[in-house]
Amino acid sequence: MSTYHPLTEQESIDIARNLEQFFPADASLSCKEIGDGNLNLVFHITDSASGKSLIMKQALPYAKVVGESWPLTLDRARIESEKLILEGKLAPGLVPQVYKYDPELSLTIMEDLSDHTIMRQGLIEGNQYPMFAEHISTFLANTLFFTSDLGMNQQEKKLQVKNFINPDLCKITEDLIFDDPYTVSSNNNYEAAIEDAAEALRTNDDLHLEVAILREKFLTKTEALLHGDLHTGSIFIKKDSTKVIDPEFAYYGPMGFDIGAVFANLILNYVGQQYWIKDEATRASFRNELLNMIISIWQQFHDKFLALWEEHGVDRIANQAKGYKQYYMNKVLQDTVGYTGAKMVRRIVGLAHVADIDRIEDDTIRNQAQRKALAIGTELIVRNRSIQSIEELVELVKSN
Amino acid sequence: MSTYHPLTEQESIDIARNLEQFFPADASLSCKEIGDGNLNLVFHITDSASGKSLIMKQALPYAKVVGESWPLTLDRARIESEKLILEGKLAPGLVPQVYKYDPELSLTIMEDLSDHTIMRQGLIEGNQYPMFAEHISTFLANTLFFTSDLGMNQQEKKLQVKNFINPDLCKITEDLIFDDPYTVSSNNNYEAAIEDAAEALRTNDDLHLEVAILREKFLTKTEALLHGDLHTGSIFIKKDSTKVIDPEFAYYGPMGFDIGAVFANLILNYVGQQYWIKDEATRASFRNELLNMIISIWQQFHDKFLALWEEHGVDRIANQAKGYKQYYMNKVLQDTVGYTGAKMVRRIVGLAHVADIDRIEDDTIRNQAQRKALAIGTELIVRNRSIQSIEELVELVKSN
After folding, report:
1. SS3 for A44?
2. Euclidean distance between CA atoms A36 and B268, whole angstroms
């Protein structure tokens, strides 16, 4: 039972039944595999009598998105489980609870969040999430600060860097985000109708210089332990609750990469709303809320991060050097802007897209949205090192 | 025999005798412990009949410099041995050959370099080393390029980062170079006569900001596998040969830290020469040669690094993005300037000093040299992010 193999639904039920003190002894469990089948199996196990349920996520030894030819280490299941447990400690209530991790089976057993919605879907439907900025800014400030050299023992941090070396999953990001979109690659995926805009990505020298610098930081800057894939499809949400899931891309990298992932996906939704919300006034109001949300997330992140630094900073000279905190937060903002742009561009011309834009049925509106996302993304990347405030980012989005 | 304990001279002879095909079977070996007793035992084993000899270096589980109260992991012997072997492959002939590594005993058996001089001593004696710039620039270009994301498989590089996580030895650098000199610390060590200059280090806001930024890069920038302690006491030299030794501080960090270590120690010698070379014309000429050496090392490093990049670059976008190579080399230069300054300052007010200045017997000249080194070091640190050429660094040294 404990040698690695992809589980069947019946096997997953047997494992769930043996989980101590979870389901009643006589429970009649049912199971459904609900994964998108990309990198993992996901089993939803329920006991209709008690109403109790849980999720079992098992890593597959390959990425199905490109067939079995893209092998992926099962070690990512350990990374995901350990990162989830750490996030639960640093940002209580903002991630699913982990009940058990089985290293042999690369299996994580965790809280069922079926009462939540995937945020991407919720935004497409035009739902408002008034707590999101508060929740995600806490998640970002706490997980980033307390895993950085500012907020944890610096020798233990080095051991954390070692523990979260994640070559396979980082390779996916390096290829799909920081290479393919800017060259002719079989991994790219876009409609012929925007070929000229895709071509423009391949011939823009200023863009390439900044992408090279952003790629370099992704490869070399062990600033904090990142989630690594923090888009709105990795967030379960409802009005009063936010749960960040799926940290299998976790590794030590630049903070702005996580923050930029959130912003990029909010802006992609902003762009896609041209189609989704038909009423003009409602759409304008919703879009305005999205941009306000970005400002609020940054401001709250900024303030919470600095408050943690003030109270828990471990680095004497970083704590005391005049001007260093401002220098630091400004660099994080600039990285955030650059990674926001990089994550928008890849979602239009790269391998993996977003429903916010891809599912727009009207060809003209969809292609307009794709072009707009590329224009915003490109400008964010090109200008990232000169941005001085979150308002500049929002103005840049509005003006495109 | 193979359980860890500090070896006696007799035990080291027994081990040497068992080294396959090195000494003749009937050799009459003699042994002398020649370490400075800081972090390691160093046994020099010779066979006077055959003239053959070797060095055995054994790590001690503590740093003697501050008594047995500063424990150090023996893992640094593995790191040193693996780094030496790697350097031997990347920069053939520029490090001692490793004959054997015994992990149980934390013991490295290697080439005897007794026919060489420690470069610091050679420079103090006013010797010229016409091949040094060529040798050390090759060492730097090859070891740094081929361990970076520019010159090696980027997934294997991540495993190298993991393999060379070195918390104990990095902690020494973080404390002694990037903290203590800028605050009141019991680790500091300087004469009362320069108290005002030491005090000035503790009250200079511009300096503290730059030290905080240099410290941050030391903590987070996994740019290349560094030697980590590349001062002139870690270099064996003679006219036609240069051998870099003692890489126990090896870890993934910013390239400029290694280059800056070389420059700092050349400049410290430049400053100390006010005492050592009595004849004014000879002194002026020697000093001029030291500054020319710095320019030559940088220029050769720069050209060799770019040539390697041109021929062996593995990163598509880094290879092709217009302006990126210039951006990259400029950042390495600026880091080099900052770390040069940081390594000069710590050698004057910090725990460990250099003979080039400490052994000056004339109090006035010695204190003048200490003040000059602090002035140069401080200015290099404060100005590092605006330096655009190696000539600026040299002009800055001359003008102090």
Report:
1. strand
2. 63
Give 10-residue mean pLDDT values along chain B (400 residues): 86 93 91 85 94 94 63 89 98 97 95 96 97 98 98 98 97 97 96 98 98 98 98 97 97 98 98 97 97 98 98 98 98 98 98 96 98 98 98 97
Any bridge partners for residue B251, and if so which?
Answer: B226
A184 vs A181: CA distance, rounded Å: 8
Residue B249 carries which DSSP code? T
CB nearest to A182's CB, from B178, B317, B328: B317
Question: Predicted ipTM?
Answer: 0.96
Distance, in angstroms, between B168 CA and closest chain A CA? 7
Residues in chain B closer than 8 A to A159 (CB atoms): 165, 167
Q: With the CA atoms of A287, A288, A290 and A292 taken in that order, what torsion angle do they form, in degrees rounded to the nearest 10?
A: 170
CB atoms within 10 A of CB B365: 15
A237-295, pLDDT tens digit by residue? 999 999 999 999 999 999 999 999 999 999 999 999 999 999 999 999 999 999 999 99
The helix or strand, by DSSP H or E, that contains position A255, with its residue range, turns out to be helix A255-276
Taking CB atoms and an 8 Å cutoff, what residues of chain B touch A212? 317-318, 321, 324
Alpha-carbon gap, residue B111 to A319, rounded angstroms: 46
Assess A211–B contact: CB distance below 8 Å, yes or no: yes
Please tell me if residue B179 touches chain A, with a CB cutoff of 8 Å: yes
Distance from CA of B400 to the nearest CA of A (A): 26
- Please give the pLDDT value at position B227: 98
Contact partners, residue B127, CB within 8 Å, separation at least 6: B117
What residues pair up with A110 in beta bridges, in sequence order? A55, A98
List CB contacts (< 8 A) between B177 and chain A: none
- pTM of the complete model: 0.96
Instruction: For residue A253, give the H/E element and its range.
Output: strand A251-253
What span, in angstroms and rounded, lies between the C-alpha atoms of A374 and A366?
Answer: 12
Q: Which two tokens stand for residue A337?
A: 């802007």
- All residues of chain B having their beta carbon less than 8 Å from the beta carbon of residue A317 are 178-179, 182-183, 208, 211-212, 215
d(CA B211, nearest CA chain A) in Å: 8
- The DSSP secondary structure of B341-383, one letter per residue, reads HHHHHHHHHSS---HHHHT---HHHHHHHHHHHHHHHHHHHHH
- Between B390-399 and B363-383, two packed helices, what is the crossing angle to 10 degrees? 150
Asked if B205 lies within 8 A of A316 by C-beta distance, the reply is no
Task: Categorize the per-residue pLDDT at A68 as very low, low, confident or very high, splitting at 50, 70 and 90.
Answer: low
